[in-house]
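are you around this afternoon, could really use another pair of eyes. what follows is a protein written twice so to speak, once as letters and once as structure tokens for the fold. i want to understand how the tokens follow from the sequence so walk me through it. anything you notice is useful, everything is just below.
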Amino acid sequence: MRFRRVEYPVTAAEAVTEPASPAVPWWNRRGTWATGWLLAALWAAAFPVVSSLETHRLWGTSAALGYAAAAAVSYVRPGPRARRAAVTVALVGAVVAPLLFLVLTGRAQSEVDVIERSGRLLLEQGTPYLPHPDKVTDYTPYLPAMALLGIPKALTGDHSWAARLLGDARIWCAAVFVLCLHTGRLMLRRNSATAPRTGRRERIPYGTAVAVMIASPVVALPLCVSGVDLPLTGLCCLALAIAARGRPAAAGLVLAVVCSLKWTAWPAIAVAMALLGCVAGRRAAVRCAGTVAAGATLLIVPGALLSPAAMVEQVLAFPTGRGDLPTPAASPLPGRLLADLGPAGWYAAVGLLIFGALAVAVSLVQRPPAHLRAAADRLAIGLIVAFTLAPAGRFGYLALPIVLMVWARQADPREPVPSLLVRGARPGRAAPVVPSRGPYAPAGTGGKR
């Protein structure tokens, strides 16, 4: 007896497919990590060749070796452990080793000496400014609160390696930077357990991302040779994180401190107020502004009253290129190139700077940021406009907006928080539900079969 095999076509609903293997994200591929560390090594290796500063050449030599070793580790050994090992190697080569060597040997950029001298002057005469500066290094182009980072040097002295390590201003600048990033992360994670996580994509772990950011040339170079802008960066990140959680008083206190370090941080006030107004209401924004005004007045006014002329000359005129001596911040940015054309070019650069500031301010009013990432992006855009169009500036200033954008994207694990307009909206009326007939009831029977 013969049986004939009959094959029936398989429909799409009955088809069984094997689950596709998940694609490896781009940041988790060893080729990506090896390429990134190799590019960083090439960037660092250029400093011993093109830079005239001894601190930059020393950092470039050490960092190039560290980045090259990290690239080798990332390429040879795949996996999360190898990635963490590569980050550790890069941190040692680009941060730990050069920082310790420069601190213990007393090598630093002039900004470090200025901060440490201002701390000593603050203790001695109550103001961080020299009355009659004779050379560029005698100028203190910072607001009075920056002198607080130089007080440890005045207290510990320079008589031993431990005193040099504990008193160096770069150590305290880096400590403030790391502490602010950590505190901001804790603020953002406080309510993350109840936050929606729908649609969240897999991404690099936060700890690894921050370690890579610190080991990168954007942060590692200024951390080792100067460190003056790191407290400013960390405090801006912390202020926006606190504002994103709707805490106006705490955000105002942090903004008061950061605005008492350098006046270039003042745009953060407008961005934080716009964020608070969207998250917590107008009263919260006004309360934050009042706290900033009171705190900044308390930190700035005493030094201004003791030496008003010196403060105006060193804090306002000198950094903008209108002082008695030329500022060393002379990177070939558009504003600097315009200012070099003469008085007309200087006023043109200032006019463009004011126009850019007004454009950012209008954007804050028309489309205020509703969450941390939007606020960080808006502040970064404003700072980029300010640094590129200012009559005097440096390429290193652009590290602040870069860190703002990178950190904001890694620090907040939650979805964007809806604004008050969305959260306070009245729900629409639900459409009335009309009972339908049963599925098998004929028409005209009232639903009875």
Summary: The mean pLDDT is 83. DSSP finds 20 helices and no strands in the chain. The two ends are 51 Å apart (CA to CA).
